[in-house]
Amino acid sequence: MSAPPLTGRPLVLDGGLSNELVAQGHAVAGELWTARLLVEDQAAVRAAHAAYVHAGAEVLISASYQASFEGFARHGVDRAAAERLFGDSVRLARAAAGGRRVWVAGSVGPYGAVSADGGEYRGHYGLSVGELVRFHRPRIAALAAAGPDVLALETVPDVVEAEALLRAAEGCGVPVWLSYTVEGGRTRAGQSLEEAFALAAGDDRVVAVGVNCCAPEEVLPAVEVAAATTGKPVVAYPNSGEEWDVAGRRWRGRGRSPAAYAAAWRDAGARLIGGCCRVGPAGIAELAARLAPFR
């Protein structure tokens, strides 16, 4: 177990795990989302990870984003079995590498995602830092025990939860990256990005800071703020830019590959670059090809 090297060339992250699982014909609806397949079909999870490895991804993010002990319990999974499933999410990503050198990031999604009500795009849950620490710490401990190279504290909507996640990860023995979801140049909860990234500025456990699960156009200014505020390498993995039509139950708009923006993000300080929702293996393959001259 070692943190990915971030001082030189950029590393290629994977894309949306749910995209590839759906493309394989699997259902990921419900409060567990991709973690549902940890219970029902682990071979599918491994195959989805492998698709991104074949596309050129060098960092895989585990299928634990929306996993929680409470959510597993509601699906009849006891605590001991749930701990194994958290660990399996890391082990499946590791196994999908197929002998290639790939780093594994254990995904720690926000409380709002686990509640499955869209709260990750609002923040302001009405919970204290201490309450959020108590929620996240067992999840982080279960993932850390499986030996990921880094923990992805990702899609964080506000400064309160970022503080809680950093506290919950204290003593886990695994480095972390901290990635906010943003809109309009601010966190989803409306805080300035300078304030948000400043939380990690003096924390040696944090190997990178940045943004994910946002529009591609939001990334460059956020990368610039993250680099200037912290002096750390930056992580960037936005959505495709399409928008979900709630009433029509479909995606609208034109998707954009992160490859089109990657050089500018890299020049601004991004050293972990990939995709999130609606960015599949084809988009990651294009990204890997675009970043090849920087390697």
State the gist of this model.
This protein is α/β, with parallel strands linked by helices and 295 residues long. It is 39% helix and 16% strand.
Description:
- This protein has 295 residues and is an alpha/beta fold.
- The chain contains twelve helices and twelve strands.
- The protein has helices at residues 17-23, 36-40, 42-55, 69-74, 79-96, 111-114, 129-144, 159-168, 193-198, 219-230, 262-268, 281-291, and strands spanning 11-12, 59-61, 103-108, 150-156, 176-180, 182-183, 186-187, 206-212, 234-237, 243-245, 250-252, 270-273.
- The chain has an eight-stranded parallel β-sheet with strand order 1-12-9-8-5-4-3-2. It has a two-stranded antiparallel ribbon with strand order 6-7.
- Strand 4 (150-156), helix 8 (159-168) and strand 5 form a beta-alpha-beta unit.
- The protein starts with 10 loop residues before the first strand and ends with a helix.
- Summarize model confidence as the mean pLDDT: 94
Shape: globular
- Write the H/E string, N to C: EHHHEHHEHHEHEEEHEHEEEHEH
Widest β-sheet, arrangement of strands: 1-12-9-8-5-4-3-2
How much helicity do the residues have?
25-40%
Count of alpha/pi helices: 12
Please summarize the sheet with the most strands. Answer: 8 strands, parallel
Number of E-type strands: 12
Our measurement of the CA-to-CA distance between the termini, rounded to an integer number of angstroms, reads 23 Å
Which structural class fits the helix and strand makeup? alpha/beta
Strand content: 15-25%
Query: What are the low-pLDDT stretches, counting only 5+ consecutive residues below 50?
Result: none
Q: What is the gyration radius calculated from CA atoms? A: 17 Å
